[in-house]
Amino acid sequence: MGKPTPENVAEQAARLGRSITAEQARLLSLYLDALLKWNKAMNLVAHGDWTRVLSDLVADSWHLADFLAELPVAAEPSTLDLGAGAGLPGIPLRVFWERGEYRMVEIREKRVAFMRYALSRLRLARTSALGCRVEELPEELFPVDLILSRAFRPWPEVLAFALPRLQANGLCIILANAPMPDDMAEAPGWRSVGSREYETGGKSRYFWAFTPESASR
Ligand SMILES: C[S@@+](CC[C@H](N)C(=O)[O-])C[C@H]1O[C@@H](n2cnc3c(N)ncnc32)[C@H](O)[C@@H]1O
């Protein structure tokens, strides 16, 4: 389907069942264009075909924006996106969900450079890329309201990392390829506040949302 022009992006999104605004199409077009160019020189995403990137990766972010809209998230949340790689889910997410201060954390310098380049083109409000290990984030950033993780580490490790770093009523959201397990023994200190199954790229995907057990109900 040609290049990821705003018109083509909007058309492809519509085929995936998502009606997007002209501004969202413009921003996603800039992101996809940058991603495909940089992907030739470095390994950012598996597909060189932008329509696959849209259906397999970017679509997660618009579904996530819908899921966040239904959750009890702070009005202006401070959010951390752990191991964001090429800015996923963060950069497309910010096209659909603009609340609060959003920080993507990534250890690999070239990926951080890509995110900063993409951010300089999209000019997304209150969105930044931090180049460090998640374990080395400055203390003053914590506690945060929201922690997101897609393909970063096994979920019990993500939750163990998040627990001491979240606000009392904060949320941790895992983007997963399987339904939330019934047995939460691997996640002591947490309770589920909901999950969502959705379909994209012909596959079922899931969001799992957790809050610290001590949070008020
Ligand atoms: C499999 S990729 C997933 C990237 C992105 N979240 C996505 O869904 O496409 C995991 C990313 O985490 C980064 N990473 C691994 N360990 C890290 C750490 N301790 N701190 C920050 N980033 C880390 C890797 O460099 C890699 O870019």
UniProtKB/TrEMBL annotation:
InterPro entries reported for this sequence: rRNA_ssu_MeTfrase_G (IPR003682), SAM-dependent_MTases_sf (IPR029063)
Family matches, as Gene3D superfamilies: Vaccinia Virus protein VP39
Chief place of localization: cytoplasm
Keywords of this entry: Cytoplasm, Methyltransferase, rRNA processing, S-adenosyl-L-methionine, Transferase
Subcellular localization, as worded in the UniProt entry: Cytoplasm
EC number assigned by the record: 2.1.1.-
UniProt binding sites for S-adenosyl-L-methionine: G83, L88, V134, E135, R150
GO cellular component, one term: cytosol
A molecular function (GO) term: rRNA (guanine-N7-)-methyltransferase activity
Functional note: Specifically methylates the N7 position of a guanine in 16S rRNA.
Family from the record: Belongs to the methyltransferase superfamily. RNA methyltransferase RsmG family.
PANTHER family given in the database record: S-ADENOSYL-L-METHIONINE-DEPENDENT METHYLTRANSFERASES SUPERFAMILY PROTEIN (PTHR31760)
Listed name of the protein: Ribosomal RNA small subunit methyltransferase G
